[in-house]
Amino acid sequence: MRTDEYFQIIANLPGSSTKTIINKSEAQVMEYVISFLSSGTIRESWGGKANSYQVYELRIYKTKGKYNKNEGKKIDTFLKGKQNIYYLFEKRANQLIKKDEHRVFIVMPIQGKEFGSQNEQRIYKEFDNRFLKIKEVMSEYNAVTIRIDKEYPLDQLVSRIKQEIELSEFVIADLTEERPSCYFECGYAEALKRKVIYIASEYGIIDTTKKTQIHFDIHMNVNLFSNIDEMCKKIKAVIDKNSDVLFKKEEVTITLV
């Protein structure tokens, strides 16, 4: 890279939020792209604190000279006429990402609120803990777990879900407190001949006295569990039994029980 060349990144976040990452080198940009492709997130310090952010789109522009916001010029004006070259980095990043790393998409209803009432927080934490435990289990198989659980504009949400399912080798679907969107995601995965491991707790989370009701004809193939430890054991049992087909994108359909 020439000494007067820099890269500017526009990161589109859920909820129509946009963040900028300015004046990066080619190598630094590649790190962001690899993180985005691997997990759908990037790590950045906005507001003085480093955090991981879920991102649904990256745009990358090469400029001559640094961007200096103190000059009063908006980033959009500074980048006017420049071409988004994300696709160039994406191609190279995909070649650098470990070929033996697997991707698994997680279907899970978004229920409760992180900062809601006590009951809403309880529901939110239960689903969040389930995802974290599934993530731990999948790490044993060198697999990255992807969950779309933030607020996207509808067209971007559907597009991102489809993209992640297409990139995944198989899907784990928690149908506890299922929503119509869960069945849409499972149906899309099945149509792409992605294998789906269906799980659900025996009783609900919103109403813990109510048995989980599974719709349609998949109820016979759902792995029911009573607690998170049993959930992990059943997921591992299914994966170990079907690993030869789960970790291959073969054009076949199987039933996992």
Describe the 3D structure.
The chain is 37% helix and 25% strand. With 257 residues, it is α/β, with parallel strands linked by helices. The protein has 2 domains: 5-96, no CATH class; 102-246, 3-Layer(aba) Sandwich (Rossmann fold). Strands 7-6-8-9-10 form a 5-stranded parallel β-sheet, with helices on both faces. The N and C termini lie far apart (53 Å). The model is unreliable at 250-257 (pLDDT under 50).
What value does the Rg take, in angstroms?
A: 21 Å
Helix content: 25-40%
Name of the level-1 CATH class of the largest domain? Alpha Beta
The CATH architecture of the largest domain is: 3-Layer(aba) Sandwich
Average predicted local confidence, pLDDT = 86
- The proportion of residues in beta strands is 15-25%
Report the principal-axis shape: elongated
- Give the spatial strand order of the biggest sheet: 7-6-8-9-10
Query: Count of helices?
Result: 7
CATH fold group of the largest domain: Rossmann fold
Question: SS-based structural class?
Answer: alpha/beta
SSE succession = EEHEEEHHEHEHEHEEH
Q: How many domains, as an integer?
A: 2
Unreliably modeled segments: 250-257
Biggest β-sheet: count, sense, barrel? 5 strands, parallel
Termini separation comes to: 53 Å
Please report the total strand number as a whole number.
10
